[in-house]
Amino acid sequence: MNYQEFKDKVFEKARGCGLTEYELYYEQSQSTDVDAFGEEIRGFSSSDRAGACFRCVCDGHIGYASTSLFTEEEAERLVDATVENARSMEKEEPVLFCEGGLEYRRTEPREVRDIPTSRMVELAKKSLELSRKVDDRVSDSSEASLMVSHSVICLDNSNGVHLQDTVHMGAVVEQTVVKENGEVSFDVDFRFGNPEEIDLEEMAHKTVQNALDKLGAGVPDSGVFSLVLAPEAMTSMLSAFSPAYSGENAQNGLSLMKGKENTKVAADCVTIMDDPFYEESFYRPSFDGEGMPSRCKAVIENGVLKTLLYDLATAAKAGVESTGNAARATFSSPISVRPTNFYIKPGTMTPEEMYARIGDGLLITGVQGLHAGASAVTGDFSLQSSGFLIRGGKKDRPVKSFTIAGNFYEMLKKIAAVGNDMKFNCMRGIGAPSVLVEGITVSGK
Amino acid sequence: MSQIPVSSKTMELVLARAMSTGADYAELYLEHTNSKNISLLDGKVYSIGDQLISGASVRVYKGLRSVFASTSDMSEKGLLACAEKVAGALGEGDAPIHIHLRERIFGDIHPIRIVPATVANQDKIDRLREADAAAKAFHESISQVRCSDLAVDHCVTIANSDGLLTSDRQIRSRISVQAVASRNGEMQTGSCSPGHRVGFELYDTVDPRTCGTEAAQQAVTMLNAGYCPAGTMPVAIGNGFGGVIFHEACGHSLEAASVAYNQSEFAGKLGQQVAGPKVTAIDDGTIPNEWGSINIDDEGTPARRNVLIENGVLKSYMIDKFNARRMGMAVTGNSRKQSYAYEPTSRMTNTYIAAGPDSEEDIIASIEYGLYAKKMGGGSVNPLTGEFNFGVAEAYMIRGGKICEAVRGASLVGKGSEVIRKIDMVSSNLELAAGMCGASSGSIPTTVGQPMIRVSSITVGGRN
């Protein structure tokens, strides 16, 4: 049975159970992935999935249950399971579901066409061939993959709300591996858009050069240094610490940003935006996980915390409006509060100007292990890193196998400059330019 | 009580269709999973995740090519469309293929006494309240407690063109407690999350109060701790979840997913001394009721006990069907995936360093200046270079052979092949611990474990 029929069955059963407030959220997606390795196509995968999550109110509490089985029998089971769960809930829900009649800003979804399988295979192979041509140190364990996906998201509720968004996405990912005298190094790059329009040659040159630059890496001395965090590294960190800006975490005593609105939480040069309509992004939803209109907002503006992020329940609790940040990680996940397209607003300095300003220090191009070495609750981080020495104001030899450690929320206050080299990761909806920070502990030799 | 509504006749048709364009092997995976996750926050039922996952995947091989498609539409029409997709991606043709499936039942060595679906929410909530109360009662600085009960009932049916038709039902339960201690604008966390391949009887052996206390104790200890010094030093790694060091530093690099592509620093090293002579490491999917155990893997191969490293000598990799072809080696029962939507690959099950000859006291006493990593956090590795990292959730300095003050913010980094050579003491108190492992085929339950070990020198990332 299709979504419309299933929704009618679920709503009919809900009314039959005496429910007056309920909602069905539906997600359907199709994606195709091609993965080339060496001379061949290692993997081809295609997925077609759909799922729905039902929510309803019983005795002032909201319950959830989700399914990917669209039958009449399942429509009934889904409502029964949700009612049972709602009866067990104790979370305070000052506001329930979104009202009808709200205004939504619609952006045309960025188009990504479907490409025939044979063409995807050809492009993936070409991408590897191009990197092999750049340098003969490129190893046959390099990989390239292409991805195209389309999804539809719908939300219907008992207030007569009916919403639908469409998202298309395309990407090329290259992992270029180089080998020299038994030493291995690699570089990963992502490009987003229609795979047929991505400049594979430029991408190949860049990943090969980056991988070669990392050969011969030593371990830096331990000490306290000024660092330039390159866009990829800063993006990883911003992502790991973004839960601190959730109003839900603040209300639950899990964020140090609690009560810090309109106070200084970062250096003057730091502005952090959450912009659901961000030009470069492929995911530009008109509504959030509860059906509230998406809204663009500065979370931190010139160092001052302007707002936390809220869904309906947390906004009501805080006495503010929802910021449109009710998120569902997948159709089956409970609603949580998360940014949509989250980024540090670029500044004017070039990376080279930053190296010159530091004189001697480190350029960090990669940080690993954020799920273990970084705590959004405390802000503490201690991360395996790689990058380059900065000497005499210039990027110097590569370094790896060391950690950088500190506290993210303290570090934001010590950002001395923000770069103009913004890089946005469309897969994760997050981005940052390079940033210059002072006084970070490096643990190496 | 299989919930999978697909007849063997339909499965035969789907496999035949999948092979119609020249594949030499086809496999159908059908899944029906119920998963419920109840969480308590600040003593109140805060969220109940209740999920039914139902779907199928079809995979074909032709030589060293693999094509995979998945669908949440389990009707005959949906399954045939999925088969059509893989067949079409592989080539053209309309070969008449006949598949005759014969059902086979591998033994189930994981008895389940109380199936989660038969337990009311309230019974689970009562257990969580005990954990919450114990954590809060531990110390006044405990400012927040999150507890959750996870129960998964995962039914799979696997059919392939060799004629195999088999099923497994995997039931797992886990309680997780996270406590936050705060003082003067500072926060530290502690956690405790035991789980097993059991039903609600989990609570016969796991006391929620003990979990609450353990999480709270860790948070309070860390709140009172100063920052860990940075540098290279000997480290004693505690038993149980400490085994995550082997999982990251070595385990991932022994998976065929890396080895078959020469993307592992252990590729081509079978029979060679790769670790200290006291190190024996085992991946064993057959431990009754253990968190990472399976009767069959996600390709229908029965689970096995594989000795990976014996007295420091590399003995075996973990190999799935597809990579077995590439490597010219036999499968080891390690092919796993999170759900129908993922393509399976070689993964770990219950992986641990076996007990050795030393005592914990000797290990601590042998360290003049170093770190005691009592409780590990998670970690990650790049098998290509072997560089790994992980966080230490609870750590203490060791001075003059004695455990001294607690330190926070420590992480351990290094290169897998170098660190396992530096494991020079292994104690006898082996303990296993539940974890979730994420990789290309999704997030799966795996067990890590070890007795206390000593790594003679490793880079400790700290802040002082």
Explain this structure:
The complex is a heterodimer of chains A (445) and B (464). Chain A has 445 residues and is of the alpha+beta class. Chain A is 23% helix and 37% strand. With 464 residues, chain B is of the alpha+beta class. Among the domains of chain B are: 116-153 and 171-224, 2-Layer Sandwich (PmbA/TldD fold); 231-461, no CATH class. Helix content of chain B is 20%, strand content 41%. In chain B, strands 1, 2, 3, 4, 5, 6, 7 and 8 form an eight-stranded mixed beta sheet that branches. In chain B, strands 13-12-11-16-23-22 form a six-stranded mixed beta sheet, covered by helices on one side. A five-stranded mixed beta barrel of chain B has the order 10-17-18-20-24. Classes of the chains: A alpha+beta (445), B alpha+beta (464). Strand 2 (40-58) of chain A pairs parallel with strand 3 of chain B.
Short description:
The complex is a heterodimer of chains A (445) and B (464). Chain A has 445 residues and is α+β, with helices and mostly antiparallel strands. Helix content of chain A is 23%, strand content 37%.
Shape of chain B: globular
Task: Kindly report the average pLDDT value of chain A.
Answer: 94
Calculate the terminal CA-CA distance of chain A, rounded to whole Å: 63 Å
For the largest interface, the chains and their residue counts are:
A-B, 73 and 79 residues
The helical percent of chain B reads: 10-25%
**Amino-to-carboxy terminus distance of chain B:** 58 Å
H-E order of chain A:
HEEEHHEEEHEHHEEEHEEEHEHEEHEEEE
Quickly count the helices of chain B.
10
Task: Describe the main β-sheet of chain A briefly.
Answer: 6 strands, antiparallel
Query: Describe the biggest sheet of chain B?
Result: 8 strands, mixed
Content of β-strand of chain A: 35-45%
Number of DSSP-assigned strands of chain B: 24
Shape of chain A: globular
Structural class of chain A: alpha+beta
Which class do the helix and strand fractions of chain B yield? alpha+beta
Oligomer: heterodimer
Instruction: Identify the strand order in the major beta sheet of chain A.
Output: 3-2-1-4-5-6
Q: Got a strand count of chain A?
A: 20
- What is the number of helices of chain A? 10
Rg value of chain B: 24 Å
